[in-house]
Design a protein that fits this description.
With 282 residues, the protein is an alpha/beta fold. The protein is built from eleven helices and ten strands. Strands 4-8-7-6-5-9-10 form a seven-stranded mixed barrel. Strands 2-3 form a two-stranded antiparallel sheet. Helix 4 (108-115) links the parallel strand 5 and strand 6. Helix 8 (199-210) crosses helix 9 (212-218). The longest helix has 12 residues, at 199-210. The protein is globular, with a radius of gyration of 19 Å. Residues 1-8 have low confidence and may be disordered.
């Protein structure tokens, strides 16, 4: 099929298809990953003086909706420009795992049970998990009437354990994503292990939720950033900070099957890239 044919077909499909943006907004107000530099933007030209508005940005890659490439955790691993387009667009499923709550653990069993409503998770799916944490993201309406809570969003989000990595590999999934700041559980991150001021609070909450005697069993030392360290060498990568219209797509369902696309910029040599994530709903 020629590129022209693809665009003609896409144009015809839009008459019966609705596009939902599953991305979070990005600007200088976006919270950045702990210990990483922030997003900075400034005008370097203004129309009254130079006849044009132009901006300059300086940023890390790991904030807002972004896709991690294997290089992020694998020496000489695939870079953003080397990720096949066939990984980034195709059949997918959005699954609600929000019942696990603060510091909760989502599992193969939860995903499989909830995904049944939409025919289950299939091999090679683009898998998006709705944890419910996007409702606490910085761009949501502020308290007291709204839900925005950037500390809760970054410190208390759900995550998996090592067993979930095995499930993703079993399903031959190349790309998955979550509406949270990380695919890893806070107890497998700096947030729960060594981030000043924060880790003591998070550890105490984990002790209360799971029992102090169980925390080290659930989150052993060797599982630090386990979804990154285990999956990236095996070509299973992820999108973090999904959000946008994800609640609208799910509606009151526990799962919804649709076509999903993740579109990073063609960053040659990039270990990660900002991305637009879209659900193409018939």
């Amino acid at each position: 099929m020629r590129i022209a044919d693809v665009f003609y077909t896409a144009g015809a499909l839009t008459e019966t298809m609705k596009l939902y943006d599953l991305s979070q907004p990005l600007n200088q107000e976006t919270p950045f990953w702990p210990l990483y530099p922030p997003f900075e933007v400034k005008f370097i030209k203004r129309k009254p003086e130079q006849g044009v508005n132009a901006q300059y940005i300086m940023t890390s890659n790991h904030m807002g909706t972004h896709l991690d490439a294997p290089l992020h955790f694998v020496t000489n691993g695939k870079t953003i420009d080397q990720i096949p387009l066939t990984w980034l667009y195709g059949p997918g499923i959005i699954v609600d795992v929000s019942e696990v709550g603060d510091l909760g653990i989502y599992t193969k069993e939860i995903v499989e049970r909830n995904a049944k409503e939409a025919g289950g998770v299939k091999e090679g799916d683009l898998l998006i998990l709705y944890t419910g944490w996007s409702k606490y993201a910085w761009y949501q309406p502020p308290k007291p009437s709204g839900t925005a809570d950037e500390e809760r969003y970054i410190h208390m989000h759900p995550g998996p354990t090592r067993a979930f990595c095995d499930y993703l590999l079993e399903k031959k999934i190349h790309v998955w994503g979550v509406d949270a700041v990380s695919t890893d559980h806070p107890m497998n991150l700096p947030i729960g292990r060594f981030l000043p001021r924060v880790c003591t609070k998070v550890r105490a909450a984990a002790d209360k939720k799971f029992g102090k005697e169980n925390v080290d069993k659930l989150f052993p030392e060797e599982d630090y950033q386990v979804t990154h360290n285990i999956l990236f060498p095996r070509d299973c990568i992820h999108i973090e900070n999904v959000g946008g219209q994800i609640v609208e797509v799910l509606g009151n369902r526990k799962a919804f099957r649709t076509t999903i696309g993740c579109f990073p910029w063609l960053f040659k040599g990039g270990e990660a890239a900002f991305a637009r994530v879209v659900a193409f709903v018939e």
